Amino acid sequence: MPIPAGDIPLPTFVCFIRLLSIMNSSKFPSFSNHFYSIVEAILSPVKYCLFQVLGTQMILLILGETHHAHSVVHKVATSLAEPARIGAVGGIGLAIFYLSQIMLQSRQWHRSPAEPLDDPLLLPNSDSNLTVTLSAAPWILIKETVYSAVASLIGAYVVGRTEFRDRMLLSIAGALGPIVFLVLMFGLLGILIGVAWALRRLMRW
């Protein structure tokens, strides 16, 4: 999450990509969290657009293919373009807020070129990488669900969704989005690791 508060925060991008690089034994680019926070803030419209679409689809899946489910979701999402637009608009609002906060804290985040990157998540050979990343991941996921719900509310307000039920449904969809994304991402990663392991076993025969 890219909002600065005191120490340099751990952006979502850094946390999960760092974890993937550790699992893959690959080197993580040694840029500062400040840099990744700016990148993630700029990409906020895309991120929350994706979260909103995934959350809306999950609500449809949970409610089932019933007339009631479609009547409820159809009211706020006539097509995938509608939740995508709401998420993107809300993401733009949060991106503006993120970037303004980052600029206000730019002096605090300034590093001298000669100063080493002492963040353990940015040191590829640090033994504490995995522990720090795993301990930060649950808290970051909780924060992302909240911010995604806020982005949904902002987007709903801007596009003219005035009814309370509409906004509640959209915020629930937004909150579900990061969870669905995380499950899909690590599910796919698990499948790829399993396939790679199976192929390696076959090659040894």
Commentary on this structure:
Keywords: Membrane, Transmembrane, Transmembrane helix. The chain crosses the membrane at residues 172-199. This protein has 205 residues and is mainly alpha-helical. It has one domain (12-204). Helix content is 73%, strand content 0%. The protein has eight helices and no strands. The chain has helices at 12-23, 33-42, 44-63, 67-74, 81-104, 106-109, 129-159, 164-204. α3 (44-63) crosses α5. The longest helix is centred in the last third of the chain and has 41 residues, at 164-204. The protein is flat. The termini are far apart. Residues 1-10, 22-26 and 112-127 have low confidence and may be disordered.
Level of helix content?
over 70%
Q: Report the count of strand segments.
A: 0
Beginning-to-end CA distance, first to last residue: 46 Å
Low-confidence stretches: 1-10, 22-26, 112-127
- Number of DSSP helices? 8
Rg, Cα atoms, Å: 19 Å
Main sheet overview: none
- Helices and strands, in order, run as HHHHHHHH
* Basic shape: flat
Mean pLDDT across the residues is: 73
Secondary structure category: mainly alpha
How many separate structural domains? 1
Quick structural gist:
With 205 residues, the chain is an all-alpha fold. Helices cover 73% and strands 0% of the residues.
SSE blueprint and pairings:
Elements: H1 12-23, H2 33-42, H3 44-63, H4 67-74, H5 81-104, H6 106-109, H7 129-159, H8 164-204
Helix pairs in contact: 1-7, 2-5, 3-4, 3-5, 3-8, 5-7, 7-8
Transmembrane segments: 172-199
Keywords: Membrane, Transmembrane, Transmembrane helix
